[in-house]
Amino acid sequence: SMWSRLVLGWLVVGAATLMVVLGRNPGDEHHGHKEDIEHVEGRLAKLNARVQNMIHDLHERTGGEKMKKALHYEARLARLERIKDSFLCHKDREFNCAGYDPQCISILLVCDGIKDCHNGRDEEHCDIPLHPNDEFVGHVIYDKCTQRRPKQMHIHVKSVSTPTFFTAFSKVEANIHIVQKVKLLQGEVQLPSKGYYSYGRHALVIVPPEKDRLGLICYFDGVDPDRCLAAVVHEATLDPCAMFMFVRHHDEGHGEHHHHDDDHDDDHHDDDHDHDDDHDHDEKHDHDDGRRHDEHGHRGHGGHHSHVRRGHGQHGHH
């Protein structure tokens, strides 16, 4: 569409500008690039204003799929901003607040209910895209290291819990289902796995479930909760050796707009899910979950695949 071409053109111009500026000498102290950075920030601000206006216009006129595409453009713009300031913050230990006043904070402070960034960005996008009984199907992009060489793998989420005293991460338990295609390893395998979701990185991290010490990190873009790009990594070095694209599997029997809740270390939460056999029981369970989360200060918010928003009272809304 005309809107898509215009926005894509703006983003290409922004990306080209960034590559020219940052490509000169990204390892230097940024004092010598002050004027260049200010110029790039100005261009990004204009791009952001145009994208925001377009998103508002699309929401008013059409909504639906075009709205989702507009959100993807916003996510791409956010990635451009992260590239611009990538030399300022440690990518694994710090969160980039972005904006005109560059600021890095500990990743442990993201989504803790307190605005540590001057612009409050660390308390935005605090929804979790993972919920009990969710299933994601991973399609192989390349694979240089796994022993089974699967074309697909499935992640079935068993439980999600967020400690009240440490809300930057949520604990995740899951089953990884792999269909083996290698000549000597025909068949299927279920790997009980544990990991966590990092709000600062928008990433699901699965710790190595086997002796080969291969873990998995699946990165969401912060906009689309239905897909993430996963890297299979060596535990010792975190070097990637395989890539998969995971897409949410929609159960036709339950539709695409059911509501999920995560729990606050309620041990009996998993048992309830394991024994849900009929739709009536599911509805009762959802109602009980909603009541229990209200008691813990949680609140859900609507939308496509409604996500959990942890009710700290200071979160922004995307």
From TrEMBL:
Cysteine disulfide links? 111-126
- Which residues belong to any copy of the Annelid erythrocruorin linker subunit C-terminal domain? 129-248
Q: Record's PROSITE patterns?
A: LDLRA_1 (PS01209), LDLRA_2 (PS50068)
Q: Where is the composition biased (Basic and acidic residues)?
A: 253-297
- Chain intervals for the UniProt region annotation (Disordered): 253-318
Keywords of this protein's UniProt record, alphabetized?
Answer: Disulfide bond, Signal
Signal peptide from the UniProt entry: 1-23
Tell me one Pfam family matched here: Eryth_link_C
Which SUPFAM superfamilies is this protein grouped with? Extracellular hemoglobin linker subunit, receptor domain, LDL receptor-like module
Q: Mark out the compositionally biased spans (Basic residues).
A: 298-318
InterPro entries listed in its UniProt record: Eryth_link_C, Eryth_link_C_sf, LDL_receptor-like_sf, LDLR_class-A_CS, LDrepeatLR_classA_rpt
Give the protein's recorded name: Hemoglobin linker chain
